[in-house]
Amino acid sequence: MNKKSTQQEKALQLHQLHNQNTPIILPNIWDVMGAKLLENLGYRAVATASAAIAYTNGYLDGEKIPFNELLSILARITNKTNLPVTADIESGYTADNAQLKENIKLLIQSGIVGINIEDTNHETKKIYTIEDQCTRIRLVRDVSKELNLPLFINARADVLLYDDEFPTDDLRLEELIKRGLAYKAAGANCFFPIALKQKDAIQELVKQLNMPINILTLPGIPDLKILKEMGVARISLGPSFLKIAVRSMKSLATELKNLRGLSAIAENEITSEYLKKLVNG
């Protein structure tokens, strides 16, 4: 893009990226550098991971990072990249609908054009009922209309995280279909059945919901090319991108501690000039 895109244009671009023949791949980032790296590599959108942002700022995941600090991080990211940015906002950092409305306004003002919103209540540690979560999704949609921004809503379903409530595969799939259809009717643009791995279940969701489906890269999921053939619209990494980065740092730090590892530094193609170009690009 040659010109600075408006927030509305970025939002529309994010919608379009979820409705094409190739899945949108999102290696979730946590800071400006990560966003600039993806932009430099030709990615067309940026997504944050709540866990990655929390961990890199010294907090546990689960809405532990102060909301104002999250807003500041998101604003820095959106200010430095011309790509659409979709943010993982967990459950909106509140269980109160009036406060959720205010939080969504502040999130939109930070410059983001999409959100992940999950159906776990972090205060009660239980999953919201379908009715309650639909009320929250409609509230988000209403706020986005009020602010004249077609916010992309990726509705995360945490069914597979609650084995006590949904103890069998059949019950879990049935509940995912119910929630997917309900969230879609409430205004969600994409459905995110976190932790879903089974090929048959993914295929059934794609068929039954007839809307973009987001799959998280976890051990045991189908190959990415197979997910594409199945019609999955979005593939995200969650905190895996951070884990891979930390693994590299840990490995080199261990080598240096044992008086080895200089070759990794000398042969590293990532130079200071490359980093400067990322920041200034």
Please explain how this structure is put together.
The chain is an alpha/beta fold and 281 residues long. The chain has one domain: Phosphoenolpyruvate-binding domains (TIM Barrel), CATH 3.20.20.60. 49% of the residues lie in helices and 12% in strands. Strands 2-3-4-7-8 form a five-stranded parallel beta sheet. The protein is globular.
pLDDT averaged over residues: 97
Shape field:
globular
Tell me the CATH superfamily: Phosphoenolpyruvate-binding domains
Largest sheet: 5 strands, parallel
- Strand order, main sheet: write it out: 2-3-4-7-8
Helix vs. strand class: alpha/beta
CATH first level: Alpha Beta
Pattern of helices and strands: HEHEHHEHEEEHEHEHEHEHHH
- How many independent structural domains? 1
Q: What CATH architecture would you give?
A: Alpha-Beta Barrel
Number of helices: 12
**Model regions low in confidence, pLDDT < 50 over at least 5 residues:** none
Strand content: 5-15%
Short description:
The protein is of the alpha/beta class and 281 residues long. Helix content is 49%, strand content 12%.
SSE arrangement:
Blueprint: H1 7-17, E1 24-26, H2 32-40, E2 46-47, H3 50-56, H4 67-80, E3 85-88, H5 97-109, E4 114-118, E5 120-121, E6 126-127, H6 130-146, E7 152-157, H7 169-186, E8 190-193, H8 199-209, E9 214-216, H9 224-230, E10 234-236, H10 240-257, H11 262-266, H12 272-280
